[in-house]
């Protein structure tokens, strides 16, 4: 599913935090929203998710205006740094959760739910931990479960907000590989928020550099690195976190 963002602006009270943003994301693309803290990345992601309303402009999924569509009807999966697993549920039940709460008409029967959970556990190679609780998992394993949970409903769009932010460098690297692998297998469209240049370069097909509610540059990781479109991009790409 493609995402078209056209002249989107957003205000909180009287402060403008997104300034006439336009961006096309092709179906199956993995796009990183990259920029310093406060540049508007999360707000843009939440608008795509339907968790926040924009004040002007258009948002379309495969050409269809979804501005007024409720978040739960948008067929979008989320992985957020602070969107934790349910502590009182096993790994398997965490993954099954999204399927069990689907409206009755689209909810699969329990056999199909169990089969899907088994497939997802295989995909993230955590079959052996199906009956554990989140507190018994490492940080990296938890976020693999979070990925599987988000993908269980077969979303056409997966949104990730600093999903690996709380993890150490080695585990982050491993999780980026997991994300790429799942993306190659399942071919969802993905938007990934990060303030980490290396993460954006490694994960994304297309990088969108943001600052102060504006898009500074849209390009491949190579474009952004070798041909920064502004002084801001040049300096930001050179900064080490
Ligand atoms: P980023 O994800 O790049 O760190 P955000 O989208 O979270 O940026 O925030 C952009 C700006 O909007 C910031 O100045 C932030 O303080 C402000 N902001 C975000 N959410 C709210 C809110 N719910 N109410 C008021 N201001 C907000």
Automatic annotation (TrEMBL):
Residues 3-237 form the ABC transporter domain. Keywords: ATP-binding, Hydrolase, Nucleotide-binding, Sulfate transport, Translocase, Transport. It is an enzyme of class 3 (hydrolase). Its EC number is 3.6.3.25. One of its GO terms (cellular component) is ATP-binding cassette (ABC) transporter complex. GO terms for molecular function: ABC-type sulfate transporter activity; ATP binding; ATP hydrolysis activity. This is Sulfate ABC transporter, ATP-binding protein. The lineage of its organism: Bacteria, Pseudomonadati, Pseudomonadota, Gammaproteobacteria, Candidatus Palibaumannia. The chain holds residues 1 to 241 of 377 of the full protein.
